[in-house]
Amino acid sequence: MNFPINGARSARNYISILKCPVCGGRFDANGPQSLICPQGHAFDMAKQGYFNLTIRPAHSHYDKELFDARRSIITGSRLYAPLHETIAGMIANRAGNPASGGLVVDMGCGEGSHLQKIMHGLGPSGWIGLGVDLSKEGIRLAARQYADGLWVFSDLAHAPLQDQSVQVVLNLLSPANYREFKRILAPGGVLVKVVPGADYLRELRETLHGDSNKRDYSNANIVSLFRQHFSKMEVVHLKYRQWLDTEALRDFVRMSPLAWSAEQAKIAAFTDRDGAEITVDVDLLLGRNDSLS
Ligand SMILES: [Zn+2]
Hints:
The chain is α/β, with parallel strands linked by helices. The protein has 9 helices and 11 strands.
């Protein structure tokens, strides 16, 4: 399933959304695979089909193995399927007129599978998905795997997106930059941020860090910060368990920063079995840009 947009790989499809990361100017298409601003800053599409619009060196310690494992879990298991369905429902029901659609931007999209699944859930309804990440490896994999999507390698604190151009900002289990989110949200647009709850992936925490305080987690500070930026927020709590088989458990460990500091014996205890139920416990924080609507 591809994004509901045709010919997304033409630079012309980007010019109403993106802005020059050097001067902030509007882009024009400079042929089918290049963007250029009035001051002459030009950016060519990479051969995999994404734009590199970063102007400073990015540091990401997420490598291809992690992203491959992440894609396997998201697309090959149903671990996150209820989450995707819930978010697609929120977009369709609460982000203005569903018939009109609009732009859905995943800020911190990684290798793109969450966004792809959510766009799939929305169906051919006029919504366009765009993924932004500061990991070039993630964006490269996303562009290669999801050929009709729009993918941009960029600094998330200085997103090369035009002011008030976005109907839905997604921020899934990754750090937020509320100043940027509010700048790019159109009037009436919504931010959907997903934060872990206390029992998120609890089976992994208990096996790997059972005797340390890494087990305990509260999202209260994140929720409080969100409320400072979006006073009329809504919170949707989602908690469920899904079965992962042995292969999925191994992918699951490879994509989990939680496991990077764990002892090998504990990792083996987690993965060397027929499968396990894994808990997904998240809060979906919904904020609307009411400032100008
Ligand atoms: Zn420029």
